[in-house]
Amino acid sequence: MRRTHAVLLSAGLFLGSLTLTPAALAEGEQTDNVPPPPQVEQTAPDAQAQAPVVATPAQPQDNAAQPVAPNNYDLTTIVIDYKEYKVGDVVPDEYRGKSYIISEWQPRHLPAPQEDTHWAYINANYILITNDTGKIVMAKSGDIFFKG
């Protein structure tokens, strides 16, 4: 019985010390500082021919005011039912129904629809389409709703 207690106590101390080993080894070591991944900005339709712009983390400067660029919510391509659409394409008939039409565009920070067009909410994006043919006139990211 005494021998069993000694073995169990020794095993407990051994296992307890194993959990402290990584902390002891890591003491004094510096952790790896991994920089955040670069942010890719959405491009406007007129800038399609250019290479995508990649934003790099800015280095803080003393007493330097940096201008804040407005967010660009314009989309050049829209995916609907696993198919890619662009401005000028026609949306499928099922997305022209009343359940997709946005009548209150102001609270969603959308520009006023042009004559004979309306905003539709399709796949978490806002798409301005013509009333008669369903041709895509403009597309905005659904994130525009959260614009402050």
Automatic annotation (TrEMBL):
Give one Pfam hit by family name. Answer: RcnB
Task: Spell out the protein name for this chain.
Answer: RcnB family protein
Keyword S-adenosyl-L-methionine in annotation: no
Per the record, where are the segments of Low complexity compositional bias? Answer: 42-62
List keywords of the entry alphabetically: Signal
The record's annotation in InterPro entries points to: RcnB
Q: Which residues form the signal peptide?
A: 1-26
Region spans: Disordered:
28-69
**Keyword Signal included in the entry's annotation:** yes
Note the superkingdom of the native organism: Bacteria
Give the organism, scientific name: Pantoea phytobeneficialis
